[in-house]
Write a structure and sequence with these properties.
The chain is built from 11 helices and 4 strands, in the order βαββαβααααααααα. With about 230 residues, the chain is of the alpha+beta class. The protein has a 4-stranded mixed beta sheet with strand order 1-4-2-3. The chain is elongated, with a radius of gyration of 23 Å. The relative contact order is 0.08. It comes from Olivibacter jilunii.
């Protein structure tokens, strides 16, 4: 392990997270209370590009104190994601941004969808765009996603945007899950569903779990239907 006050020695990799000043401020406060940087050095590759620890470096720089670092000649960009997966300090969006920059298959599609619909969280978006309708958080962390159902995701997103005009909880995760499932159901009629919502907007209330949301939306859709009633799991 080495230490230095020459912060210019270090470089960034494009797929690193952007520095979060709020996080830097928290680190600075912790360091002022008890400087443990020697026990938690930054990790750099053979070119001194930061693999892990850019926020610790920035905190040390702003405080004007020595930064400790470990240099690994065999480290590569993929290790950024791997290290943070173990440490659990990256959000799902951090992984999406990382793999988008690294041009991992499908992540440009996911990023565009999230950019087009910022109200939709990453987990719900991954469910919508995948053929099996599952939120594969491990796949996102590993840089592997299924985007074959992207057209479905955009249809659901357009409906949610419309629904938000009449229902404050349209972007609740359970609501998005139910709506996405309904759109996949054979016999589902989007325009008919809209008309039923407009006919009985007061039937839409805040619920406490997925089961209640499912029952509520099915009741709205199936109201006064004697046949072709929908049901979902």
């Amino acid at each position: 392990m080495k230490k230095t006050n020459d912060y210019s020695l270090f470089g960034m990799i494009g797929s690193n997270r952007e520095v979060d000043q709020k996080h830097v401020n928290k680190l600075k406060a912790a360091i002022k209370k008890n400087n443990l940087l020697a026990l938690n050095p930054i990790v750099v590759d053979k070119y001194k590009r930061i693999i892990d620890g850019q926020h610790r470096l920035e905190a040390a720089k702003q405080l004007g104190i020595e930064v400790y670092y470990i240099q690994g000649n065999d480290l590569k960009k993929q290790d950024i994601a791997d290290l943070n997966s173990v440490k659990k300090n990256w959000s799902m969006m951090d992984y999406v941004n990382y793999y988008t920059v690294e041009k991992a298959p499908g992540f440009n599609v996911l990023s565009k969808f999230l950019n087009d619909h910022p109200e939709i969280n990453v987990s719900s978006a991954v469910k919508m765009i995948s053929m099996d309708g599952h939120s594969n958080s491990k796949g996102v962390r590993d840089g592997k996603i299924d985007v074959r159902n992207i057209e479905h995701a955009y249809r659901v997103a357009r409906f949610l945007k419309w629904l938000r005009n009449y229902y404050d909880y349209a972007y609740n995760s359970s609501v998005m899950d139910i709506i996405s499932t309904l759109f996949e159901k054979e016999g589902f009629d989007e325009e008919y569903f809209k008309s039923k919502i407009l006919d009985q907007p007061r039937s839409l209330t805040k619920c406490i779990n997925r089961h209640q949301y499912k029952e509520m939306f099915l009741e709205v859709y199936n109201y006064k239907l004697s046949k072709n009633r929908l049901d979902i799991k």
